[in-house]
């Protein structure tokens, strides 16, 4: 049977890559990652193709992330298929960032986790009034990956730290503010933009065409909270961040503290370390190498299986984290997530 979970077709001089699992919100599988990579290989070698455009089928979003259920089942069974999936997915993320032709992403609707990985590393990243962009991994006992720590580390001030720890979904203006997207285009205009892109004769025509469709996004909400976000998240530890949030006198900050306390304590501490370390790394590839180490360790830790169970499988929204308290997650345990993997390293960046 033909795998139609990713559709590849050419219109004019644009190769369209369409993620096609609408009932699963276009969640990525290993086979889909391979198919997208095949599309990029075809586009790179075809002089008739000027640019690539990625979008999602259905009307709910580009991609809700990886296939979390299959990762949960693999982890419970003690398998290793998820590690192979992440290896190829992270290689794809790096390839998108370095792709030699314009890579346009329609980030319409829900764009989370792996959906960010196949869009936010592109050249022309378009959000709409329906966009909800997030890296929500701490809520399932995991950590931001697919180059997410690299992107969030470069966000202004401590906005990226806030998004990484809380998993908060943001709209179009905030996605642009945080460097996760470039342009706002009303969703009703996307079909017209896609049709006009088909007529582009040169790579330079792509950006010029997009700019004719761009309008001003609604006001960025995070900008109004920047003062307390920057002040609170500048702290060195998750515990101190929560103390500052509670002591800020700002209602939204106190609510954020409650949000953080519901997340996996281990995931919070490892995520904070990952974003801080990513700021000191010199490339996306180096960040992806780091993320693969962290993902590999998180895969065998109890919180990932428990988090997916609570949020996705049983949906009781009552995860029992282990350890259950931030104070019980030691510096040594956090450091363990970042130890190189020897001959299992991803190997995208410079060797350590």
TrEMBL record:
EC number: 3.1.2.4
One annotated GO molecular function: 3-hydroxyisobutyryl-CoA hydrolase activity
NAD among keywords: no
BP GO terms, sorted: L-valine catabolic process
A single GO cellular-component term on record: cytosol
Catalytic activity, reaction form: 3-hydroxy-2-methylpropanoyl-CoA + H2O = 3-hydroxy-2-methylpropanoate + CoA + H(+)
Pfam families, per database record: ECH_2 (PF16113)
Keywords annotated in UniProt: Hydrolase, Isomerase
Location of the Enoyl-CoA hydratase/isomerase domain: 16-338
Name used for this protein in its record: 3-hydroxyisobutyryl-CoA hydrolase
Organism, as annotated: Streptomyces finlayi
């Amino acid at each position: 049977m033909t795998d139609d979970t990713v559709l590849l077709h050419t219109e004019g001089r644009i190769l369209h890559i369409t993620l096609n699992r609408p009932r699963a919100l276009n969640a990525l599988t290993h086979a889909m990652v391979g198919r997208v990579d095949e599309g990029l290989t075809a586009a790179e070698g075809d002089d008739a193709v000027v640019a690539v455009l990625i979008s999602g089928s259905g009307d709910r979003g580009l991609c809700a992330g990886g296939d979390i259920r299959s990762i949960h089942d693999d982890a419970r069974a003690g398998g290793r298929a998820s590690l192979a999936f992440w290896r190829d997915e992270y290689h794809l993320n790096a390839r998108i960032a370095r792709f030699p032709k314009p890579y346009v992403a329609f980030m319409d609707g829900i764009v989370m986790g792996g959906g960010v990985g196949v869009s936010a590393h592109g050249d022309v990243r378009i959000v709409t009034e329906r966009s909800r962009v997030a890296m929500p991994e701490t809520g399932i006992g995991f950590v931001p990956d697919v180059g997410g720590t690299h992107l969030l580390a470069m966000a202004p001030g401590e906005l990226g730290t806030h998004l990484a720890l809380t998993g908060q979904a943001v709209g179009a203006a905030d996605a642009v503010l945080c460097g996760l997207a470039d342009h706002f285009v009303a969703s009703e205009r996307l079909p017209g933009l896609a049709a006009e892109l088909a007529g582009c004769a040169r790579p330079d025509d792509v950006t010029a065409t997009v700019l004719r469709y761009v309008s001003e996004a609604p006001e960025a909400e995070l900008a109004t909270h920047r003062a307390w976000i920057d002040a609170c998240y500048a702290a060195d530890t998750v515990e101190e961040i929560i103390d500052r949030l509670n002591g800020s006198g700002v209602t939204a900050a106190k609510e954020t503290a409650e949000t953080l306390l519901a997340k996996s304590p281990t995931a919070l501490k490892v995520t904070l370390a990952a974003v801080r370390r990513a700021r000191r790394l010199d490339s996306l590839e180096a960040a992806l190498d780091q993320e693969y180490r962290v993902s590999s360790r998180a895969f065998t830790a109890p919180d990932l299986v428990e988090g997916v169970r609570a949020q996705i499988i049983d949906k009781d929204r009552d995860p029992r984290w282990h350890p259950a308290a931030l104070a019980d997650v030691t510096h040594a345990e956090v450091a363990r997530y970042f130890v190189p993997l020897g001959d299992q390293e991803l190997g995208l960046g410079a060797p350590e």
